[in-house]
Specification:
Strand order of the largest sheet: 7-6-5-8-9
Oligomer: single chain
Order of helices and strands: EEEHEHEHHHHHHEHEHHEHEH
Strand content: 5-15%
Largest sheet: 5 strands, parallel
Radius of gyration: 31 Å
Number of helices: 13
């Protein structure tokens, strides 16, 4: 759009971040990319001849010409600030969160879950628990459920064994009870502009279950050790997450309940929150939003 004085022919209509618009008196303030007149994006209106200094700035010091006669159409210059509505120009604190799953977003396994699985295996409880946790790291790193339960039982389990299917189902049920309070906190900060990513030490079966749950639709990335082939607290797991997120360590806040995981993240320069309760998490996030 040209300057209406006719003295700025060929010049850009953008002057120090503002668009110079022209219209006759009574005309509608509307141009491609311009906000409606009532929008906060519309700037100060200057009547022709009333602010010679402004015109000189627009026309590089040239004479602005005579003032419009009374009764003649009045031409206005509108300096429309291009940054958008005022609410968008206010600086909104941005949080980039990397969140653990187990016992942060999920609740602890219900009492009796492991005991019921022990009964299915026909192992005594102590032997079952020892194998359950001893072989869990390889399961989290991508080994199959069949290999995992075969290692616990110390025998090869057929893929179509109904006991295997029941063990997998009970194990998943124990890890997929969600902490609604934590999710409420994360939903609130997400609505406020925070980005969310998940980093979990989780086997493929659990990863698939989480991915199918609509509660995680607000997450930009769901990152699992079974897919990475590396687990927390290994620094490579955090670096893989940062690479996936396209973020630097200094820009991310990591939330986890395990001290070894938060310590490893902090050593990489990642801000950390040691998760205890959802209410405490909200307080920690509020503090960061006020910085």
């Amino acid at each position: 759009m040209q300057c209406s004085h006719g003295k700025c022919k060929g010049r850009s209509s953008y002057v120090q971040g503002a668009e110079v618009l022209s219209l006759p008196a009574g005309g509608a303030v509307r141009a491609a990319g311009a906000a409606p007149r009532g929008d906060a994006a519309a700037g100060k209106m200057l009547r022709r001849g009333e602010d010679a200094a402004a015109k000189k700035r627009l026309c590089r010091g040239e004479d602005a010409g005579p003032r419009a006669d009374a009764g003649q159409p009045v031409e206005w210059h509108i300096l429309a600030v291009m940054q958008g509505p005022a609410r968008d120009r206010r600086r909104t604190p941005k949080l980039t969160l990397l969140v653990d799953y187990g016992e942060v977003i999920s609740r602890p396994q219900p009492v009796g879950t492991l005991e019921r699985m022990a009964e299915l295996t026909e192992l005594d409880e102590a032997t079952f628990l020892r194998g359950y946790w001893q072989h869990r790291p390889s399961y989290d790193l991508g080994s199959s459920s069949r290999d995992y339960w075969s290692a616990i039982l110390d025998r090869t389990v057929a893929s179509d064994d109904p006991v295997l299917a029941e063990l997998v189902a009970q194990d998943l049920a124990g890890w997929t009870r969600l902490n609604r309070h934590t999710l409420d906190v994360l939903e609130d900060v997400h609505r406020g502009g925070a980005s969310l990513s998940l980093l979990s030490n989780a086997p493929a079966d659990l990863a698939e279950t989480i991915e199918a749950d609509q509660a995680f639709a607000m997450f930009d990335h769901l990152i699992f050790s079974a897919r990475l082939g590396v687990a927390k607290p290994d620094a490579a797991a955090f670096q893989a997450a940062l690479d996936t997120m396209g973020a630097s360590a200094a820009d991310v806040t990591f939330i986890d309940d395990r001290p070894d995981n938060t310590a490893a993240a902090a050593a990489l320069g990642i801000d950390v929150i040691a998760f205890t309760t959802a209410s405490r998490l909200r307080e920690e996030l509020d503090l960061r939003l006020k910085r």
